[in-house]
Structures are given as C-alpha cells and as structure tokens.
Amino acid sequence: MASSPLRTAVRMPGRPKNSLGPLVLFHGCDKDVAEAVLSGQATLQPSENDYDWLGNGIYFWVDSPERALSWANLRRSSPSVIGAFAYPGNCLNLTDYGVMNELTPNTCQISDRFSVWPPANPAGLGGR
Fold it and tell me: Global pTM?
C-alpha cells in the first residue's frame, strides 16, 4: 500500500507510522499539591478510588488546561493546574485515521489466539 503524500509530509522524522508524538498534559489539583510537586517536595499520587473511570492512576487532560482547571474548580478548595510533557513513543494511536487498516488484521490474530472477540457494533453505529 502506497503512503499518502500528506501523511509522509507531516510525520515526525524517526517516528513510526501510527505512533503518538509528544503530548502536552494538564493535571487539575489543589494549589498546595501543585506547589509541593513543582518544588520537588512531593510527587503526584495515583488515585485508587472504586469510581475512577479508567482505573487507578494519575489523570491528565491532553491539550486542555481549561478542562483541568474546570475539574479542579469542582473538587478542590484552592484549584490549580500542573502542566507536563509526555513522550509516549511507540504506542498505538487510535486517533490516527490510517490505523484502522492495521488494527483489524491484528485484532483478528489476537482474537483467534485467545478465543476472545470484540463486541460488534449494531448497524447504524458504525457496524456492518
């Protein structure tokens, strides 16, 4: 399959196709936490609540300091935001338009090996 001229022109040199480039992340927290982390006196601690949407971990908003502050405004008495850079490297980028061409065959291989198939989307919601 030939590479798209647009895709070739905009991919970062040395970065694998369908991987993620650097991300700018923002974490909503209390002002005391932000100051302690930024001064090197503390580290962010993972959340381990039963209700955490994506499981245990430290949550960040990508490219949205406003969203991190909005979250902190609802949950913290002295809301603040910490910014960070992340370099995820060779991760599967599900936001890349071309990734679906490579994902489907790999999904079938994984499903065959472990006898587990992903649920099918109903017709009208992207299903067939």
Answer: 0.62
